[in-house]
């Protein structure tokens, strides 16, 4: 971070701090928010964490979860008050203010000192202090580094270490994606030295599914998976009726997109879900095909080169039609061997 000394000075005396993160927080978003909140509380600050929406139950074990304010009608006024009274606002794991819905404008208007810690592409220039790198696998990796740069890693206890580890574990796909660097492993080792129980965190996040969630996955794979070999693409669509038939909860469809990508030869996988108010899309790729570009250009979204999200205002059938039509433009990028017959 540039101006590290000024940043340290800012946090040297107790402040009113607000921390916020992106829509439907994942383990990196919530882990960085609650890890930072616990760290700042230990330093004597008054800290509130506000999330734009709820988040999956498999993150409820994180220390500080019970104090999180989920921005909705009931506590809209309270959230606005916290944002307007904050002296420092941290924005974690997102790169532009529109990602936090209506809260974004409140943050923009606030006179608080703003701090961005993030690893998404194309950050908006709104923060006074920035710790940003797309080379980082997770926001929690950057947060760990920042705490070390500040010379304050002695504040990291077991609870904080487990929040930070959760972000690294999930954003690297359990140390499988190309973002799994030596640095990631070094930081993981340091977090284990601070007491992080990595096996426990893995079990709490990945192995606490409801039966309904598993049945939805089974149904999606057997009935809803479409493989377009000529595009090396696989996609799954889920209607609003199907979500309610399987009593789907926040987080139940997280990771579904990876099944498509696990098919041999597939380089582009998509999940399209009708969330009633909006059609939400998840994009994943392996190799050179940039899903960030695809999501940004066609579906008002973005993210990372190999993992991005977006949305559509069309109906589900029209979104599927549009998606399939778009693939035509990318045929050669998705299948460089297009002129040869597909061999599988
Ligand atoms: P997911 O598919 O898991 O929801 O998101 C994949 C990645 O893309 C995450 O890093 C997430 O923050 C980002 N992302 C998801 N949806 C959007 C979106 O609508 N806009 C932008 N800019 N990024 C998104
Ligand atoms: Mn992240």
UniProtKB/TrEMBL annotation:
Record domain DHHA1: where: 245-327
Keywords for the protein's UniProt record, in alphabetical order: Hydrolase
Xref: Gene3D superfamilies: 3.10.310.30, inorganic pyrophosphatase (n-terminal core)
Domain DDH, residue spans: 16-168
Molecular function (Gene Ontology), one example: 3'(2'),5'-bisphosphate nucleotidase activity
Name of the top EC class for this enzyme: hydrolase
This enzyme's EC code(s): 3.1.3.7
PANTHER family linked to this entry: BIFUNCTIONAL OLIGORIBONUCLEASE AND PAP PHOSPHATASE NRNA
Name the UniProt record assigns to this protein: Bifunctional oligoribonuclease/PAP phosphatase NrnA
Organism for this UniProt entry: Agaribacillus aureus
